[in-house]
Design goal:
Translation Initiation Factor IF3, 8-stranded mixed beta sheet, Elongation Factor Tu (Ef-tu), domain 3, binds guanosine-5'-triphosphate, globular, Rossmann fold, 4 domains, binds magnesium ion, 697 residues, alpha+beta, 6-stranded antiparallel beta barrel, single chain
Length: 697
């Protein structure tokens, strides 16, 4: 499609995309079915197969076989499930412990600690133990410890009517202090650098606070006076004595970066998929750290979370890194920027979700796709080896879950021309197959890259990049493409979602000393603020708990608000129950319920025999990953066939929504589909206690 022919850029979402499921040759997965597809569905419901149905069933079977070709060597079902459960369980624990957080001071990044409200026991080293006026009921009587250059505490005797040059200097200093405190700083007014608290008179104090406000404005920060004390004879007094020296004042002011402006960034999440050793982590590392790879695994080291990953060279957990672009398409990464300056300078933030290529970690990878709600997926292929290993399975997943994808053929520095051609032709064939129906579009120029960003959004073609993370060949094409990519939600849909009451889906649970339980996840609707009162649930006993948000961190920096579409971490004032991935946190105005049983229209991608009642599999739907059992089937089906199935969550009632896309697997068995009905267990809130009652919908 030429540029002039390209469809007008318009509101597009996954359901509108013709980015159809693997079975869409049959039309079962399309939301608006064509006449032929309706007939097809009808025939299935009536269990009467027409010639056309048989034909389409066969097509689907072939596709399923094609997609399953490379996993035929899988180890036996039982062993694999056991292995995966073990590996996933251990990974889960490790991920939960380490996700999103690294040790302060590690690398160039300023990462790490949580502040909960104004509890500074958990603050970075610069702040700890150095809290001044308001850290106890009894502030120090006459002096504070001397000011230190590092850290986020600044002493100022007074800030009265500064000249513009002086104000500029003060603003620079405040930005530095804020950076030191990861977005928070303390100003002690009326205090000398050596800590002596002489105080200032009322007029100078008011004027100093005004200057602080002006400085805050320029730093995009808010100020709060935490404590003000009276000082007489250089001593803090609770009751100023009459007739003594003039009363002077000292104050402690908390400065916090707001980062609150609406839609400051466009957030995009890209999941990295592809076979083991394809070069996913390397590509993420090169893009986000601006340093080419050496061909022996140097660039991927920035992405690894665990020692065993460094030792084995394989990703086993989900890690995230960010890359920023400003409105002019200039790129901001860790090469020359701190995380804060990337966020300051960028208008678009791309978060790469690096996933594991190994079959052993497939559960974690599928969860990365379902629970982390990526906007796009990048399927990375080693040009030299072509479409081997888990590639087809990962492509199948993006199609099944309707995640628009693009292809990156890496390592072209090591592949002779013949192999490059072979790989491109393999890709072209699989992308134009009826299962995918998104022809390849090889990107050769910046203009192509621009067009490719539109094509992937509309779902008309699949962009294909050929590049090397070692020589950097064609890397600018991919960077240009990334700078032009748009969110899959249209502006209207986004506005609607932003205006709705808040909802947050939990994709990770951390336990941190001090703040306690931290929930990470995506704000799917509305805006969450500090101190927001929300309902968290369902817990395993189907109850919901009312919780109050203590602090919000986004991209490892403190925030006051988190808006729809942002991935954030939340700490709470009153959360001491065991939480799990897949829970939701929502406004009290939403219904609180859990789901015990649900119905879905499924398509069986692969199964060794007939699918029967009683079969168990791991279900991935939205943020949920739980074992389900088949309670009912409208007919017994085999590979490449569809059925209406009734499922039951095996461990505990969980969440499911009508219309949600699902994927299930057990060993070699794989299937996908859409939820069509749910049986709810309603949870009523009575103060903080909940009453549970059964309601059938
Ligand atoms: N020569 C060359 N080597 C590359 C290129 N990209 C990656 N590599 C190397 O390929 C190896 C595997 O790269 P990774 O990034 O770990 O692969 P991965 O896809 O993340 O693998 P898993 O995490 O196991 O799924 C590393 O040794 C990289 O240095 C490239 O463009 N050229
Ligand atoms: Mg990797």
């Amino acid at each position: 499609m030429s540029r002039s022919q390209s469809p007008k850029r318009m509101c597009t979402n996954r359901s509108q995309n013709s980015f159809i499921g693997l079975v869409n040759t049959e039309g079962a997965e399309e939301e608006s079915l064509s006449t032929t597809e309706e007939e097809d569905n009808q025939a299935i419901c009536n269990s009467e197969l027409t010639t056309k149905d048989i034909k389409t069933e066969l097509t689907a079977k072939d596709i399923a076989k094609e997609l399953a070709k490379d996993i035929a060597t899988e180890i036996s079902e039982t062993k694999e499930v056991k292995d995966q459960q073990e590996s996933d369980d251990s990974i889960g624990t490790e991920v939960e412990k380490t996700m999103e957080y690294r040790k302060p001071g590690q690398g160039k990044k300023n990462l790490g600690c949580f502040f909960v409200g104004t509890d500074y026991n958990t603050s970075p080293p610069g702040m700890r133990g150095n809290r001044l006026l308001s850290n106890s009921e009894q502030p120090p009587e006459s002096e504070l410890p001397p000011e230190v250059e590092e850290g986020n505490i600044e002493y100022k005797l007074k800030l009265v009517n500064p000249t513009s040059a002086r104000l500029e200097h003060l603003v620079t200093q405040m930005k530095w202090r804020l950076r030191e405190g990861q977005g928070e700083a303390l100003y002690e007014i009326g205090v000398h650098d050596n800590g002596q608290m002489t105080g200032v008179n009322r007029g100078d104090m008011d004027s100093s606070l005004e200057t602080l406000l002006a400085m805050c404005k320029q730093c995009d920060a808010d100020s709060t006076v935490l404590k003000e004390c009276a000082v007489q004879n250089n001593t803090v007094v609770t009751e100023p004595a009459e007739g003594e020296e003039e009363v002077r004042y000292v104050a402690e002011v908390l400065i916090r970066r707001s980062h609150d402006e609406a839609n400051k960034w466009t957030d995009l999440r890209i999941a990295m998929l592809g076979n083991v050793d394809a070069g996913k982590s390397t590509l993420c590392g090169v893009l986000t750290h601006g340093e080419l790879d050496n061909g022996s695994g140097k660039a991927r080291l920035n992405l690894f979370r665990h020692l065993h990953e460094i030792q084995s060279g394989h990703t086993s957990s989900i890690s995230r890194e960010i890359l920023g672009f400003d409105q002019r398409g200039r790129m901001f990464n860790y090469e020359n920027h701190s995380i804060e300056s990337i966020l300051d300078s960028s208008s678009k933030i791309i978060t790469f979700i690096d996933l594991a290529g190994s079959q052993k970690y497939l559960k974690t990878t599928v969860f990365g796709l379902t629970g982390h709600s990526p906007d796009y997926a990048a399927l990375v292929v080693n040009t030299k080896t072509g479409l081997v290993g888990t590639f087809r399975e990962h492509l199948g997943l993006t199609v099944a879950l309707r995640v628009p994808c693009f292809i990156v053929l890496t390592k072209i520095d090591t592949a002779p021309n013949a192999l490059k051609k072979r790989c491109v032709s393999q890709i072209e064939n699989i992308l134009k197959s009826p299962a995918v129906k998104r022809p390849a579009f090889v990107v050769n120029s910046l203009a192509d890259a621009e067009q490719a960003a539109l094509d992937v959004l509309h779902g008309s073609r699949t962009p294909v990049f050929l590049l090397s993370a070692v020589t950097g060949e064609n890397l600018p094409l991919l960077q240009h493409f990334l700078s032009r990519m748009s969110p899959t939600l249209s502006a209207g849909e986004r506005e609607k979602a932003t205006a709705a009451p808040p909802k947050f889906s939990v994709d990770g649970v951390l336990s941190v000393t001090g703040p306690g339980t931290i929930l990470t996840g995506l704000v799917t609707r509305g805006t969450i603020r500090e101190d927001s009162e929300l309902m968290l649930g369902p817990f395993e006993d189907t109850t919901y708990q009312r919780v109050r948000v203590a602090s919000i961190h986004c991209n490892r920096l403190p925030r006051r608000v988190a808006k729809c579409g942002q991935s954030v971490s939340l700490a709470f004032h009153n959360l001491d129950r065991v939480c799990r991935k897949g829970m939701i946190l929502q406004s009290c105005s939403y219904e609180c319920y859990s789901v015990e049983e649900f119905e879905a229209e499924i398509f069986l991608l692969q199964h060794p025999s007939k699918l029967r009642i009683g079969f168990e599999a791991t279900m991935f739907v939205e943020g949920i990953r739980q074992k389900v059992e088949i309670l009912g089937l409208d007919k017994n089906i085999t590979t490449g066939q569809r059925a209406k199935v009734k499922f039951k969550f095996v461990q505990y009632p969980d969440l499911a929504t009508v219309g949600a896309r699902l994927f299930f697997r057990n060993g070699r068995t794989k299937g996908m589909g859409t939820i069509t009905a749910i049986k709810k267990i309603q949870a009523l809130v009575v103060d903080d206690e909940l009453e549970v009652e059964d309601l059938e919908i």
